């Protein structure tokens, strides 16, 4: 059986510099091993970075332009580009374009939206 989810059906969590649209997570009973959602950043957004201690994150740029930044370097993101972020990597996102930056994010194991925002690098 298939499950179809449209953007307007997603639960939205406002986070610093962006809105998180949750598509799939253990909370909805569809999966046990991953969470998937879309982060939408408004033009010029540059939220403080964060760390996912135990989650790997795979990011696919759906639309817009920006950068994913970590200590080891920068990944320029544009439509069609995938960036992999290992667990425990401090990273931040910058929306550089004149339009919103829309990123499809897949976490394994699943992440609780915003659970990482209250922490910093210290």
Walk me through what this model shows.
With 122 residues, the protein is mainly β. Helix content is 0%, strand content 44%. It is built from no helices and nine strands. The chain has strands at 11-15, 18-24, 35-41, 56-63, 66-70, 73-77, 82-85, 91-95, 101-108. A six-stranded antiparallel beta sheet has the order 1-2-3-9-4-7, with no helix packed on it. Strand 1 and strand 2 form a beta hairpin. The radius of gyration is 14 Å and the shape is globular. It starts with 10 loop residues before the first strand and ends in a 14-residue tail after the last strand.
Structural class, by secondary structure, is mainly beta
Overall number of strands: 9
Low-confidence runs? none
Main sheet overview:
6 strands, antiparallel
Physical arrangement of strands within the biggest beta sheet: 1-2-3-9-4-7
Helical content band: under 10%
What's the shape?
globular
User: How much strand content do the residues show?
Assistant: 35-45%
Mean pLDDT: 92
Could you give the order of the helices and strands? EEEEEEEEE
Radius of gyration: 14 Å
Q: In DSSP terms, counting alpha (H) and pi (I) runs of 4 or more, how many helices?
A: 0
* Gap between N and C termini: 45 Å
């Amino acid at each position: 059986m298939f499950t179809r989810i449209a953007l307007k059906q997603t639960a939205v969590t406002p986070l610093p510099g962006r809105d998180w649209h949750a598509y799939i997570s253990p909370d909805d009973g569809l999966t046990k091993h991953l969470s998937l959602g879309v982060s939408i950043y408004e033009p010029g957004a540059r939220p403080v970075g964060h760390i996912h201690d135990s989650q790997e994150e795979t990011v696919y740029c759906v639309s817009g332009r920006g950068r994913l930044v970590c200590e080891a370097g920068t990944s320029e993101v544009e439509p069609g580009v995938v960036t992999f972020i290992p667990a425990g990597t401090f990273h931040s996102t910058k929306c550089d374009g004149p339009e919103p930056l829309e990123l499809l994010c897949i976490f394994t194991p699943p992440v609780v939206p915003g659970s990482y925002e209250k922490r910093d690098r210290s």
